[in-house]
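hey so u asked for the seq, here:
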Amino acid sequence: MQLGWSTLLALGAAFGVVYGFLLQRSDFCFTSAFRDLYAFRHTRVLQGIVVAVVVTTLGWGLAMTAGWATPERLWVPPVGWNSLLGGFLFGVAMYIAGGCASGTLYRAGMGYGQFWLTLAGMGAGYYAFLRLFPDVLAPHFFEPLAITGPVTLYRLLPWPPLITAALAVAVLLAAIAVVAGPASIGRAVAETAAFFRQGPAALLRLRSWDTRAVGLLLGLVSTLQFSLWTIWGITGPETRLVAVAWGALDDPARVAANPYVANLFRDYPGLVPGPEELLIVGIIAGAALSARLNGTFRWRRPRLRRLPNALAGGFLLAFASRLTPGCNVGNLLSGLPALSLHSLLATVGIAAGIYAAWKVAHLRQAAAVRSCGVEPASTPAEGAATASPSAVS
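ran it, structure tokens below
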């Protein structure tokens, strides 16, 4: 079924509000998911991400097998060393900025001035990338680092998509059972079911939701969006918004002639915002709505000492997302369910980047403590049993 432009605009806004509501309600931050794992062996948010990936993978496999969607809707970029390198830089940027692409949006919706500055830094990063792409990045970065074209298990294996998806999920769950123990999966399922048994009215009053329940809901909503329209991402639409702003301030024909911009807008009626850009606005609005309902919305002035983190971190966040390409949502919640080799490499890079940035920050902190003549009591991992993850938020 071919949907009209106005219908797609409405869908983009509606899905954005739902995503923003869910992300805010559970503080679904990808940065803290990995950082808490490294520092505290705490997996609260990481479990939610895994559930979202599992449900989305099965949902998309079912949608393609049933004919609700075609494999052409999958986002599967070509594979290159840039997948790994860009992901690594994106992970470092997440740590510096204190938030991922989606985390920046929902926290901006909650009234954090700090993350509006991060968005400003990201705007500069997208603009710099667009200006450098034709003459510098395309010939001297992307072409030398290219390995092969798009690779996905859906094209490599001859089985129906649902069978391929179920096989991939089985491998993932088996790996989790080996690392965390088989009982951990059953316990997570039981706790998630108990969360939903509270009923809608009680859930709306809750200030914070179970991340695994939110991961389940994100997977279902993403499957509905995939069946009706397309996948969801953050940094691609944000790049389009910057291109639109650039076109409004410059010669639109010259901007549209930029090869990266031309590719971004190939299905658009011109250099104008579209449904995916409304989804971005909807995430901010949905987060603001959720924060109003659970009493966590208030305007917070940015802290001066965190200004370099917001601007420089935001710049690198945007620039690295284009080098990869893709952000935490694009690669983890849309690329992994597409069984894309590019997104698998990017995810490894993101996890490694956050670890490297956390390790450097930890070593600097320990050196500063020693310079004051005080021996650190324990490493963060050693203090996992007593310290709270919120202490490093």
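The radius of gyration is 21 Å. The CA atoms of residues 27 and 276 lie 22 Å apart.
lmk if thats what u needed
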